[in-house]
Design a protein that fits this description.
The protein is mainly α. It contains 4 helices and no strands. It comes from Collybiopsis luxurians FD-317 M1.
């Protein structure tokens, strides 16, 4: 394997390790600190910028490997048609090996690109989850500090007022129309 495909494989392996670390269920405090560091650190931002540039090169390698795979497949098909199945074993082995290497390179670069998209989205979703958990904790803290008791009392008094007004209007309607409307009684 050439050096650039070896580097691509190392990038793929590091992406797999990173993905595993992203989805491991750490406690909330640890996850918050780690993701806070990863999203705010200028050093991590520079590394991420370098990795994004490397993905441009991996994309170029992907399209090159894809083109090479199609070309080798076409050459193998032409050789099989020209030989009518009576080709040399060494030639067939050579075409099969070239086709295998081309397919391997396509899969290697393709999975690397795909996993980069998955990592980006997983990181974003986890950050959103952390922010949502922070908001929930803030709301829960303000709700339990006594504000919810006042809210309940205000809502209950509003309910009682509206119920009394409804009953008054229903009685007035019954007197005017001469019919009996069912009132909901508690």
């Amino acid at each position: 394997m050439t050096i650039y495909y070896s580097l691509t494989f190392l990038l793929l392996a590091s992406e797999m390790v990173t993905f595993t670390l992203l989805v491991v269920p750490f406690p909330y405090a640890v996850r918050k600190r780690v993701f806070g560091f990863l999203s705010d650190s200028p050093i991590v931002a520079k590394i991420a910028y370098g990795v994004k540039i490397s993905f441009i090169f991996v994309g170029i390698l992907f399209f090159d490997a894809l083109q090479r795979m199609f070309r080798i497949t076409a050459e193998a098909d032409i050789a099989k048609q020209g030989q009518q199945g009576m080709g040399d074993v060494r030639t067939e082995t050579s075409f099969a090996a070239r086709k295998f290497y081309a397919q391997r390179n396509v899969y290697l670069t393709g999975f690397t690109l795909f996993l980069s998209l998955v990592l980006t989205r997983t990181f974003a979703i986890t950050l959103e989850l952390i922010h949502s958990q922070e908001e929930y904790a803030k709301l829960k803290k303000t709700g339990s500090s006594g504000g919810s008791g006042k809210d309940y009392d205000a809502l209950k008094s509003k309910y009682d007022t509206q119920t009394a007004e409804y009953n008054r209007l229903a009685d007035k309607y019954n007197k005017l129309s001469g019919s009996k409307a069912d009132k909901k009684k508690d």
